[in-house]
Give the backbone structure.
Amino acid sequence: MAQERRSGLIRLSSVLFFTAGLVAGAWWHPFAAPQESAERTDSAASDRAAGGAAVPASAEDPAGRAPIAAAVPRETAPAGGLTVEERANIDLFREASPAVVYITSIAVRRDMFSMNEMEIPQGTGSGFVWDENGHIVTNFHVIRGADRAQVTLSDNSAWEARLIGTAPDKDLAVLRIDAPREKLHALRVGSSHDLLVGQKVLAIGNPFGLDQTLTIGIISALGREIESVTRIPIRDVIQTDAAINPGNSGGPLLDSAGRLIGVNTAIYSPSGGSAGIGFAIPVDVVKWVVPELITHGKVTRAALGVHLATQQVAERLGIKGALVIEVVAGTGADRAGVQPTRRDESGRVVLGDIIVAIDGEPVANGNDLILLLEKRKPGDRVSVEVQRGAKRQELTVTLTPAG
């Protein structure tokens, strides 16, 4: 009896298990079957269309979900017209870019083993055509220490350049190439004394060796001061947010009329790349320095005929002005009676005259004196105000050529 009951229970369990399987299959089938049926139908239809060959109707999605429709080419949308500002930028670049050049400075080194001379590229920078005589303006630091330089024009023709003159105090230099006049396109020259903060400016140059690059910005500030390689300040510098990077040095800064208003010279950047703070030497300085370099090879300075104490000595003595240490015999300062620093009979140091003004313009240190005299010529007469002991005196000095 017990054996029969166990057999009955086993049969009943099998029936229940089988029934449950049928129910589950019926529940799943409405979801799974249509897709499989559709796939089989599509496949069969495709086979029939191809005479029995399998021709897929569309590409299968990699995830095995739904068929992917065939790719349809996109139509090109019609271009809108250029804005007035865009057209102005394009026209300006086309006009000015032929004047911008790429400069490679080259150093000659001797191999220690073979004793052969080798030419090594030392650096690159930008420049621009100054006139049809082949004069090229760039920064002094671009060609500093180079044995020769090569200038590449906008048409990619390369020319050996001769150094004509340098003005390290202004970070300017002039080269010359013997290119045909038809290849030399000089920039139109503007002015910098009437610039305003907010004006649009454009820089063209060769940042990181990428030639003929245009960047656009505004004048961010005026009257900035930066230090030249000789540590004499360059004043009235233009600050701009137009992107200026290594390789832009020596290239032109232009106004919206395409006129030269500055020479790009430096950037302020912790990373070495553009940080939106670039500086350009004002064109009003360029206009008087470049002719001097072309004519004389250097800036011919006028001088009083004195040697001054260093800035450190003046600061240590608490002096505001330019302290005269020595007066050169036979110069204008000597004839005007400027007094040098000396020792008295007891050996004590007696300070010389302290120059505090030139033609009414204040002199705070030796650099101020140099900058005030730089635009004057030998033979000019200037009024020199000096502090002599507790008194101030005014002397008239005829300037002499700087030694």
Remarks:
- Residues 1-6, 20-55 have pLDDT under 50 and may be disordered.
